[in-house]
Amino acid sequence: MKNLFQKTMMTIALIVAMMTTAGNLTAQTVDETKKIVLTVKQGEDIILDFQASSENTKVRIASGSNTQEITTSINWTGAANYQAGGTTMTIIGAVTGFNCNRNGEKITAIDVSGNTALTKLYCYRNELNSLDISKNIALKELSCFGNKLSSLDISHNTALTRLYCHLNQLNSLDVSHNTALEELDCSKNQLGSLDVSGNIALKYLSCSENQLNSLDVSHNTALEELDCSKNQLGLLDVSSNNALTKLYCNSNNFTTQAFNDLMCSLPTHQASDAATFYPLLETSDTKASTFQATNSTIAKDKNWKVRYLNGGADIPATTGSYVCPMVDESKKIVLTVKQGQAIRLKLQAAAENTKVKIVSGDTQHEITAGTEWTDYQSYQAEGTTMTISGEVTGFDCIGNRDKITGIDISGNNALTVLSCFSNKLSSLDVSKNIALTVLSCSSNQLSSLDVSNNIALKELSCGDNKLSSLDVSKNTALTMLYCHKNQLSSLDISSNTALTKLSCYENQLNSLDVSKNTALKELSCYGNNFTTQAFDDLMCSLPIREVSDDAKFYPLRSASDSKATIFQAANSTIAKDKNWKVIYRTNGADIPATTGTYVCPSTLFTEASTATLSLYPNPVEDVLQIETGDAVRSIRIYNVYGTEVATATNATAISLAHLPAGVYAVRVVTDKGIATLSMIKK
Asked: By C-alpha distance, which of 367, 319, 360 is closest to 337?
């Protein structure tokens, strides 16, 4: 029994040993599907280093007759020399990190397309003329500086967080797809422009020694270090970069005022932040006298050290006395916001370099606005309110949806433009904002809107709300009114004689009179409660237009509109005679001729009034002439079946030579009205 037990234990031990050996053999198998190929200088030692995603990863390095197998792991193996037995060197295995730095002319090309698992690629200071990483979508870190690259496509590498491509020959660089980018060094190239507006995660940016004449970092609120020295910048605004603690900007085209403005835009720090500003290279810098005339106290008061780049010594006190513009705290806009959310805003001011402060909770941003709109920028809501202080004349908070539930603009009487549509506002008080010329508050939850004090208003868009009434009688300057998708049962626009566009579709209107709106050129009114008579009356009230006005009338949304048969019984010729296109809203196609014969009573000339309009010759053989003292807009000829057989616009004569003999109706539209007369064709 004892011998049997010993034999059994020996058998088990042997099986375990075999399984362990098999496991080790499996772990040590080279992954033949993953390859990196280098073009190398034969006979030279090539310095390489490797990293893998798991321990005991086997890697084979093959070049000519030289083959070597090594084991790497989650830690870098350590740089080592590998003999180039041929003109190529192939690295086979599940390598996720690859380093071939500092081989100089020994490496002239690298093909990493065969290893899509690569997350780190370090190939700086070689002799590469090109680099294709389009297949390496897992790549997070790329260091390819110090080569001879004239182009670099990183559009496929959306996971990239670090890119060091300085010391090459790049004349363009597109980082718009690399929104995860945290560190970017593209200095010492030939870049004429650089757009980092989409790289909001960026913490480190070096773009020095290029040919940049402008640089916008207003969206890069996470930026901690910026080196834009040795370019052609004439100004720089870092007012949005509250995290910035290191700024290198020597050797640009800054004037004394530009230096002052830049220091005014610096964020305020604690002394412990060790924030440092490098405006000059050294004491002999060509801009030394320019900077000497500034007020460097501006930066120092914000706890910035002002130093020379070379040597790091403090720049002596300057002689300027410039004072930074202050935020006008008397003007405020207060938003009720959803805490923890990013609120998207866009601003405009009446003057350049207008300081604006945006505060929510303990977070504060100071930005500079001008007469042109700023780009949209997101500000974090650290509390339930967000206050915008400053002389803002244009305010845009569109599309924040349920992130904004209230807005108080009563504290800013300078506001001329307010765009707050597509939020979740249940009320809006604009009674104090008499300077408003544009109000866009569509797509909210407003049940009432009082614009009686806003007599300067030119554009009002309040569609897609819950309005049951709307009084625009005081808004005589209105040129555009969009009040669609509400619950309006009536709409009086008789005072709005300057109106050119009216959108009142999908309400509960029973009638609409636009007879006073002589400037109107576009009317969208489908989806209301119009009868056939209401449609006819509306078309009778349309103003007469020139053909060149391209006037558009949208009585139906589409051919399947629920009101299609009702409008079909109307007389659409009434609108067409006044040079209005009668079209569907969805596709802009002409609505087919309707069957109605209604005649507008207020604009019809009777036979007794032929003293003001006459036809000759009548009977006519060839050309019919219209004689009137009024401007003729159109002439339409109808046969006895009511079919239009000839037409002319903006003319006092029409050729009828092609028509057969018979009796015809002639419909003439002038700037005073419409006349229908009889004519005989010989």
From this structure: 360
pLDDT of residue 8: 42
What long-range pairs does 471-480 form, CB within 8 A, spacing at least 24? 472/496, 475/451, 477/437, 479/519
Sign of CA dihedral 377, 383, 385, 386: negative
Residues 19-38: what's their mean pLDDT?
70
Which of 522, 478, 530 has its CA nearest to residue 502?
522
160-196 per-position pLDDT tens digit: 999 999 999 999 999 999 999 999 999 999 999 999 9
Closest by Cα among 248, 254, 247 to 214: 254
Query: What is the predicted pLDDT for the residue at 638?
Result: 85
Residue 456, both tokens: 């300067």
Give the tens place of pLDDT for each residue, 271-324: 999 999 999 999 999 999 999 999 999 999 999 999 999 999 999 999 999 998
Whole-angstrom Cα Rg for the chain:
38
Average pLDDT over residues 150-166: 97
Query: Which letter, b or e, does each residue of 563-583 get, where b requires 16 or more Cβ atoms within 10 Å of its Cβ?
Result: bbebbbbbbbbbbbbbbbbbb
Which residue matches tokens 């109000």? 439
Rounded-to-integer distance, Cα 523 and Cα 500, Å: 9
Q: Do domains 96-308 and 468-594 have the same CATH topology?
A: yes
Tell me: pLDDT of 200 over 50: yes
Task: Give me the pLDDT at residue 678, please.
Answer: 87
Report d(CA 461, CA 463) in Å as an integer.
Answer: 6
User: Considering only 179-183, 546-550, 666-670, which range has the smallest mean pLDDT?
Assistant: 666-670
Q: What values do phi and psi take at 4, rounded to 5?
A: -65, -40
The confidence score (pLDDT) of residue 28 equals 66
Question: Which residues are paired to 128 by β-bridges?
Answer: none
Select from 383, 437, 396, 390 the least CA-distant residue to 412: 390
Superfamily of domain 468-594 in CATH is Ribonuclease Inhibitor (3.80.10.10)
pLDDT at position 1 is 40
Question: DSSP labels for 190-250?
Answer: --S----TT-TT--EEE--SS--S----TT-TT--EEE--SS--S----TT-TT--EEE--
The gap from C-alpha 531 to its chain's centroid, in whole angstroms, comes to 43
Distances (CA, A) of 71 to 29, 317, 457: 10, 59, 75
CATH 1.10.10.10 for the 604-681 domain, yes or no: no
Instruction: Give the C-alpha separation, 208 to 214, whole Å.
Output: 12
pLDDT at 4 over 70: no
Question: CATH says 96-308 is which class?
Answer: alpha beta
H-state helical runs in 513-649? 532-541, 564-568, 573-576
Cβ neighbors of 14 (< 8 A, separation 6 or more) are none
Residues 597, 676 contacting (CB under 8 angstroms)? no
pLDDT for residue 614: 87
Residue 446 in contact with residue 425, Cβ under 8 Å? Answer: yes
**Domain ranges in the chain?**
96-308, 325-438, 468-594, 604-681
Helix (H, G, I), strand (E, B) or coil at 535: helix
**Model-level pTM?**
0.61
Rounded mean pLDDT of 562-581?
96
